[in-house]
Structures are given as C-alpha cells and as structure tokens.
C-alpha cells in the first residue's frame, strides 16, 4: 500500500530552527510537495521537489532523497506565525497526490 | 492574490437540504480540479477529480449521487452535497491544476466549512 509518515506534533522555540521529516512508500514518484495549513484554513503551497537535493526559499528549505524515500522541511528563524500544520504529499505514478496526516508545529516564545 | 476562489466559506443548513459549493479559478484555465474533504485534525481526503467537460472520477467510498460535481468550464467547478446529513459536516476544499504549470503544483481554494444541523 501507499504510505506517508510524518511526526504528529513538534514544538520549537521562536528564532530557532526546526526540521520536519517525511518518509514515503508510494507506487511511483512524480514529486513531493510541502504545504502549510493554519487551523481552519486551506493549505498553501510551500515547496516542490522532484530531484534529489535541497531547494531553498527564504526561511524555508526542502530536501529530497528519492533512494531513501525521504524528505524534510527545514524552517529557520522561526516566527510565531509559523505555528501551523505542515503537510507532506507525494504524487504517485498516476499523478495522484498521497497526503500525509500533517505535523502540527507549535512555536513557543 | 488568490488564484482559486471558493464560495461560500461557511454554510449552515438543515438536515435534508442540498448545498452547492463553487470553486473558481481566477485568470487561469484549470485543466483539472480536485475536491477534498477534511475532518478535524486529519489529512486531506480526495473525493473526486474533475476535468473540464467530462464526468468526475470519484474515489472509492465516495457516493457520486450524494456529492455531485460539475466542471462546466475551465474556470468553474461546483460540488453539490445533496440531502445533507450531520455526518456530512466537514471542511471541503477545492484545488486546481493549471494549463502550462509543469510543476504539477496545486492551487487551493479557501475552503468551505459545512455544518449540517
């Protein structure tokens, strides 16, 4: 079966760095997405990785290793507004998105 | 600004009534639109995929007669929850894939929170 695993919840301190991991087992691979979702709102796109390596976008970076079925989202200089759920999603060989359950990130002052 | 607009954002209805949710792509042609539902503290669940001018493809376990999806144009898709019941209360989200966007990125609507009394 297809499976996406990510931690349920993480806590970090304002100004610090946090890494959210995602491992996957899917039928084929056509890219991995990270989305941010604040409570009661729709997800917003953060990043897309299809090749191995690190993609950097400002305070957020995303890494992919296809051979390991592994990705992480790195958030630097954490701000209180970064408190949200972070969803990992993989596009399989049929171009269907398989969603992880999300990681709730709690930022403390 | 938003590229996908969803309306209404919140709706409360009585059990047995039907509710229509609209999803519009702004300034772009949406080749494919997806409808999801999300229960509290859970991940997005794909309900159906619709391509312009063709019938929607429903995921296993989703009743096509209860959740009517129409994708009449490249900028509009609608989800109608027919004869809604309290168990249909959920957060419904649409997303669109646009012609010419090779990354496969999905753009999400704001979501619609349905409460059935």
**What is the general shape of chain A?**
globular
Mean pLDDT of chain B: 88
Mean pLDDT of chain A: 93
Oligomer: heterodimer
Helical proportion of chain B, percent range: under 10%
How many helical stretches of chain A? 0
Low-pLDDT runs of chain A: none
Order of helices and strands of chain A: EEEEEEEEEEE
Radius of gyration of chain A: 13 Å
User: What is the tally of beta strands of chain A?
Assistant: 11
Description:
The complex is a heterodimer of chains A (109) and B (117). In chain A, 0% of the residues lie in helices and 57% in strands. Chain A has 109 residues and is mainly beta. In chain A, the strands form 2 sheets. In chain A, strands 2, 4, 5, 9, 10 and 11 form a 6-stranded mixed beta sheet that branches. In chain A, strands 1-3-8-7-6 form a 5-stranded antiparallel beta sheet, with no helix packed on it. In chain A, strand 4 (32-37) and strand 5 form a beta hairpin. Chain A starts with a strand and ends with a strand. The relative contact order of chain A is 0.35. The mean pLDDT of chain A is 93. Chain B is an all-beta fold. Chain B is 0% helix and 53% strand. In chain B, strands 2, 4, 5, 6, 9, 10 and 11 form a 7-stranded mixed beta sheet that branches. In chain B, strands 1-3-8-7 form a 4-stranded antiparallel beta sheet, with no helix packed on it. The model of chain B has no long low-confidence stretch (mean pLDDT 88). Classes of the chains: A mainly beta (109), B mainly beta (117). Chain A binds chain B through residues 30-31, 33, 40-45, 48, 87, 91, 95-97, 99-102, and chain B through 6, 34, 42-46, 91, 93, 103-111, 113.
């Amino acid at each position: 079966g297809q499976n996406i695993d990510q931690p349920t919840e993480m806590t970090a301190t304002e100004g610090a760095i946090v890494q959210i991991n995602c491992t996957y087992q899917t039928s084929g691979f056509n890219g991995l997405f990270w989305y941010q979702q604040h409570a009661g709102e729709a997800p917003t796109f953060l990043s897309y990785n299809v090749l191995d390596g690190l993609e950097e976008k400002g305070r957020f970076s995303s890494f992919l290793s296809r051979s390991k079925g592994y990705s992480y989202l790195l958030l630097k200089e954490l701000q209180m507004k970064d408190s949200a759920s972070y969803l990992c999603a993989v596009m399989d060989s049929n171009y269907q998105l398989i969603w992880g359950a999300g990681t709730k990130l709690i930022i403390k002052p | 600004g938003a590229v996908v607009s969803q309306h209404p954002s919140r709706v409360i209805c009585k059990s047995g009534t039907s509710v229509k949710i609209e999803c519009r792509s702004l300034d772009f042609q949406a080749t494919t639109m997806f409808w999801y539902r999300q229960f509290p503290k859970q991940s997005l669940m794909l309900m159906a995929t619709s391509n312009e001018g063709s019938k929607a493809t429903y995921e296993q376990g989703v009743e096509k007669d209860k959740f009517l999806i129409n994708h009449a144009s490249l900028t509009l898709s609608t989800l109608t929850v027919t004869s809604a019941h309290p168990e249909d209360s959920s957060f419904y989200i649409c997303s669109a894939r646009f012609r010419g966007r090779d990354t496969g990125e999905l753009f999400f609507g704001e979501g619609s929170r349905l409460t059935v009394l």
